[in-house]
Amino acid sequence: MRIVITQNTTLDGRVEMLDDWFDPSNQDEDLAAELMRQTEREDVLLLGRQTFEDFRGYWPLQTGDTTGVAESLDRADKRVISSTLTDPGWQNTTVISGDPQEAVLELRAAPGRDVIITGSIQLCHALIRAGLVDLYRMFTYPAWQGRGRGFFPDGYSVPQLRRTETKAFASGVIYAAFEPLAGLGSEQED
């Protein structure tokens, strides 16, 4: 399976939400449709414990969700990396208590489509440093936070990336996907 990080980010590359620049319930129709399109290729949703608990405390309670995200998350094969969580308390969830990198290597070697990781900054940074990410998806919001953890770990030398997709939405959000260039043997297209 392909390992894909999907993050919401600010113009200055911050993914840690310290200000009010992101609201999961306030998405335009085209942005919601893009998220659902990407979910169609998802076989596994992999989350760190904190992001999982944030999702579990929010999405199952969204009874009036018209985007389809709440229902999609309920159905998803969710895996949560945690050394402390024993009962996930959300259907279709498996707790992975072992080495996260080993778990991701096993998922990567398994047949299937995408393993999506979102939020989970500590987990994402570990996977980025280990070179285990096949695709980076960025939903950039028109906001500048000026502080907080970034998409890439501090001090990390980002490899050359090839843009594979871009879209702009009426809300001002811009989506772009990138894959590491190493081994692809092609140039970025405009």
Secondary structure class reads alpha/beta
The whole-number mean of residue pLDDT values reads 90
Instruction: Give a short account of the largest sheet.
Output: 8 strands, mixed
Q: Can you tell me the residue ranges where pLDDT is under 50 for at least 5 consecutive residues? A: 183-190
Pattern of helices and strands: EHEHHEEHEHEEE
Instruction: Give the N-terminus to C-terminus distance in angstroms.
Output: 28 Å
How would the global form be characterised? globular
**Spatial strand arrangement across the major sheet:** 4-3-2-5-1-6-8-7
From the alpha-carbon coordinates, what is the Rg to the nearest angstrom? 16 Å
The fraction of residues assigned to DSSP E strands is: 25-35%
The count of helical stretches stands at 5
List how many beta strands DSSP finds.
Answer: 8
Q: Percent helix among the residues?
A: 10-25%
Pfam families: RibD_C (PF01872)
Protein name: Dihydrofolate reductase family protein
Organism: Citricoccus alkalitolerans
InterPro entries: DHFR-like_dom_sf (IPR024072), RibDG_C (IPR002734), Riboflavin_Biosynth_HTPR (IPR050765)
